[in-house]
Amino acid sequence: MNKTIVLASNNAGKIKEFNALLADMGWQVKPQSEFAVSEAEETGLSFIENAILKARHACASTGLPALADDSGIEVDYLNGAPGIYSARFAGRHGDNDANNRLLLEKMQGVPELERTARFHCVLAYLRHKDDATPRIFHGVWEGRILDTLEGAEGFGYDPVFYVPECGCSAASLPKEIKNQLSHRAKALKQLAETFAQANLTL
After folding, report:
1. Which of 60, 93, 137, 160 is the most exposed place for a label (fewest CB within 10 A)?
2. What's the average model confidence in pLDDT over 120-140?
3. Is 107 helix (H, G, I), strand (E, B) or coil?
4. Coil, strand or helix: which one is 148?
5. Is the CB of residue 178 less than 8 Å from the CB of residue 161?
6. Cβ atoms 83, 58 nearer than 8 A
7. What pLDDT, in 10s, does the model give residues 49-101?
8. What phi and psi, each to the nearest 5 degrees, are found at residue 67?
9. Order of strands, sheet of 161-163, starting from the edge strand that comes earlier in the sequence
10. CA count, 13 A, side-chain hemisphere, 5
């Protein structure tokens, strides 16, 4: 029997990715929009704070366990920016094209060795709205920023993120490969291992 977990996001790309990664474990991930949950205000100053805020809001609104993902890209040359502001780097939330254009503009002329970057994904799992011990999982994917957009798969900053071990951008990877390597896949693997070890149920 599928176990329902609310994902505190309405991002279609994330919903698809989470379901692809979690379906084999018998979990059915449903977006919070199916429960008419409003977007939580992301007032935290870290990925961890924002993930907990979003998960607690989804738990309180639905009465179900919730999983929230706060993720973004950290560019060393930009002192860690855009970081927690990745989704609204160019001003409008979720405008991937504008965000990528702005990042490429800021990195114009920067030598390859100084273009190092990494994706972060923090997952927060709460059993209920009053859960005082949220479980936190953190995945990191190292790479660097390209000079131009490359590839048509994925979403977000995938077209500008070069994956050294694959010799191409994240947006050039088949989703099956990305789902093994990505920051989100690493965080989910930690989550699955923890659930198995602790015999947790949803």
Report:
1. 93
2. 96
3. coil
4. coil
5. no
6. no
7. 999 999 999 999 999 999 999 999 999 999 999 999 999 999 988 899 999 99
8. -125, 130
9. 27-31, 3-7, 66-75, 116-126, 135-145, 161-163, 168-169
10. 23
Q: Measured between alpha carbons, how far is 88 from 95 in angstroms, rounded to an integer?
A: 7
Find the largest Cα–Cα distance for the chain.
54
Q: Is 199 helix (H, G, I), strand (E, B) or coil?
A: coil
Active-site annotation holds for 76: no
**Residue with the two structure tokens 């709460």:** 126
Q: What is the DSSP letter of 82?
A: B
Sorted by sequence, the CB contacts under 8 Å of residue 58 that are 6+ apart come out as: 6, 7, 8, 32, 35, 37, 40, 64, 66, 68
Candidates 24, 69, 70, 131; catalytic one: 70
Average pLDDT, whole number, for the chain?
91
Please state, in angstroms and as integers, the Cα–Cα distance from residue 74 to each residue in 40, 96, 106, following that order.
Answer: 23, 16, 13
pLDDT 10s digits, 8-23: 988 777 788 777 777 7
Q: Is the dihedral of CA 101, 107, 113, 117 positive or negative?
A: negative
Torsion of the alpha carbons at 97, 86, 110 and 174, rounded to the nearest 10:
-60
Model confidence over 133-179: pLDDT tens digits? 999 999 999 999 999 999 999 889 999 999 999 999 999 999 899 98
Quote the Cα angle for 195-181-66, to 5°.
35
Q: pTM of this prediction?
A: 0.87
In the structure encoding, which two tokens stand for residue 169, read together? 């951008």
